[in-house]
Design a protein that fits this description.
single chain, alpha+beta, 22% strand
């Protein structure tokens, strides 16, 4: 009997049913699209933010290392638990030098580093590490060094020495001299403009520090820091430490790196890490808010459509009450209709939202995404919630209909 009444209700009111179905489907589609790209947006934004600089600094510990880290240990960074979150790293070896070019002399810092080094990682294959990977925002007038005797010079130091790409500059350190050919002038807007950057092996020979580095900058993908992530690991219980260690906080990844580098101390660069975390948190909040607003608008549209339908069906409802239908039976009819429409609307909304998410990802990030499996039940639940929220007021109005007044009028 209930099935027959539901069937007749759909066949007699196709326009009203279609409007409710469309409202639910659009709400589910928008929710699916926003939730589908939320994870993709966070990941893409995190990758984009990596171009603003490293977020972990690795230095020699105060107790061990003799003031230096060992270059031979660097491949171990790509073998830690969070190795796939580490997008790049580069070592530095610093020394104070006296530069001379064209009769001019200036004191400054000579920095040995990797520009783009093919690194063999035991058990993991090869990867390219260096400044070009972790600092793509550096502007180089000319080209990056390719030979052992080539270097790039900071813009401020180049101005004082009157250097240009192709010029020669000599670096003198404790009686040892090294001639460099300038391959490019680098502009960063920071302290790097006062330095000369050359291949690490060349600077190690100049400073007589073979196989040693002063510090390592590491760039890693992290999750936003929360109160738990800021806790001191030394004060955590065993379960808390395991949870913290297995979450990609900047602090836990720094701990990973510190464990594999002998005589090192790793610490987050909070200026960058905090800004990233705050931005990603706000971005996720915006996506969630937009999803809730879309579902709220859909629920309002459903409620409006059903209110008009209830007004049209008042005589039908009054007649059901007159022949003995109770509140539960009337509620079952309307909830049954809403449930069927919401299931259909959720399925269609998921299919539309999946395509919409892919379109947005392609237009904004120039990449495709694969919707996670949990989006389908989420779309169905969203559709059902929208349908129920939009049915509350119309159902209450239906239950308050007085048969005598309606049938007599």
């Amino acid at each position: 009997m209930l099935f027959r009444m539901l069937k007749n209700s759909f066949l007699k009111r196709p326009k009203a049913v279609f409007l409710v179905f469309l409202s639910i489907a659009m709400g589910a589609a928008v929710a699916t699209a926003f939730l589908g790209i939320a994870g993709e947006v966070s990941h893409k934004m995190a990758l984009e933010l990596r171009s603003y600089g490293a977020n972990i600094l690795l230095e020699p510990s105060a107790v061990e290392g003799g003031g230096f880290l060992r270059e031979e240990d660097l491949p171990k960074i790509k073998t830690v638990f969070w190795k796939y979150n580490i997008t790049g790293f580069t070592p530095y070896l610093f020394g104070v030098a006296e530069f001379s070019a064209g009769g001019r002399r200036e004191r400054g810092v000579v920095s040995g580093t990797w520009f783009s080094k093919q690194l063999e990682v035991p058990g993991e294959g090869s990867s390219v590490q260096g400044i070009k990977g972790i600092a793509p925002w550096w502007e180089v007038q000319g080209r990056w060094p390719e030979a052992a005797d080539e270097a790039i010079v900071g813009a401020a130091l180049a101005r004082r020495l009157k250097l240009a790409p192709g010029a020669e500059v000599a670096a003198l350190v404790r009686g040892r001299s090294q001639q460099f050919r300038v391959s490019g002038i680098v502009t960063t807007g920071g302290f790097e403009e006062e330095q000369l950057f050359a291949p690490l092996v060349t600077v190690q020979e100049l400073l007589q520090q073979q196989g040693k580095v002063s510090r390592v900058l590491v760039s890693a993908l992290t999750v936003p820091m929360d109160e738990f992530g800021k806790k001191d690991p030394a004060l955590m219980t065993k379960d808390e430490f395991e949870k913290w260690y297995c979450t990609a906080y900047v602090t836990s990844i720094a701990k990973n790196v510190e464990e594999v580098m002998a005589g090192s101390r790793a610490k987050p660069i909070w200026q960058i890490a905090s800004a990233e975390g705050a931005l990603l948190t706000k971005l996720n909040s915006v996506m969630l808010l937009l999803t809730l607003l879309a579902l709220g608008a859909s629920a309002t549209a459903v409620s409006t459509s059903l209110m008009a339908s209830i007004a049209e069906r008042s005589p039908e409802i009054a007649l059901m009450k007159a022949v003995g239908a109770d509140r539960f039976q009337i509620t079952a009819i309307f909830i049954g209709e809403t449930l069927i429409i919401s299931v259909c609307g959720g399925v269609v909304g998921y299919l539309i939202g999946d395509q919409l998410a892919e379109l947005i990802s392609r237009l904004v990030f120039n990449s495709t995404i694969v919707s996670p499996l949990w989006l389908f039940p989420t779309a169905l639940i969203s559709a059902f919630v929208v349908a129920l929220a939009g049915s509350v007021a119309p159902l209450r109005r239906a239950l308050l209909i007085e048969p005598v007044r309606v049938l007599k009028g």
